[in-house]
Amino acid sequence: MVLGPVPESGFEGQILQRVEWEVPGRNGYASYEVSTLTGAEVDEDALIVEAVEDSQAPVQLERRAEYYFCPTGVQWCPIGIVNLLIMVVVIAGPQPRLATKWAWFWLGFLPLGCAAFLVLEPVPLWQRQPALARQGRLTGGWAWLAAVLTQPIAARLIDGWYQTVPW
Questions:
Q1: Whole-angstrom Cα distance, residue 15 to residue 38?
Q2: Which residue from 98, 83, 166, 107 is spatially nearest to 138, judged by alpha carbons?
Q3: Which of 27-31, 56-60, 129-133, 163-167 has the highest mean pLDDT?
Q4: Which of 25, 42, 112, 139 qualifies as a FRET site for 163, CA 20 to 30 Å off?
Q5: What is the pLDDT at residue 143?
Q6: Residue 140 burial by CB count (10 A; 0-12/13-18/19+): exposed, middle or buried?
Q7: Three-state SS across 125-152?
Q8: 85: pLDDT confidence band, cut at 50, 70 and 90?
Q9: Other Cβ atoms closer than 10 A to 21
Q10: Which long-range contacts link 123-126 to residues 24+ away (Cβ below 8 Å)?
């Protein structure tokens, strides 16, 4: 776990620090506040250090010498890479049969939208002929509207499931 520097004694003001941690298969980060401006002193830094000391798991605490808020270097997201590859397949591949390419583009922003494309559009990549499109395919405008209206619900469902998975 990496924390920012300890605020100097006599510190007056408000700062937002970054905390990072590594867990096998999933790294995380958050920000925490250190403030003397709100009337009551807020020192979330001390709460994090206390939680690390009380942790059952072995946790190493490292302090950064400088204040920063952004990570450096390339941050890889496997799901993002898969979504990018599926978008290339949608663009370069033959015309989908259930919805237009624009519809699948907008539906790809939904959680599991790209998975739905792979399951529902079984057109082999090597087939260069247009697929037999059904009458009344889903168009880009309707797909955009559906994505905008269902994204908050889908994100909440996925987040609720994600919190229950024992990582």
A1: 12
A2: 98
A3: 56-60
A4: 42
A5: 92
A6: middle
A7: CCCCCCCCCCCCCECHHHHHHHHHHHHH
A8: confident
A9: 14
A10: 123/93, 123/94, 123/96, 123/97, 125/89, 125/93
Joined together, the tokens standing for residue 88 give 């290339």
Whose tokens are 């942790």? That residue is: 55
pTM above 0.90, yes or no: no
Nearest-angstrom CA–CA distance, 156 and 127: 37
**150 vs 106: CA distance, rounded Å:** 12
For residue 125, give every residue at least 6 positions away whose Cβ sits within 8 Å of its Cβ, in sequence order, or none: 89, 93
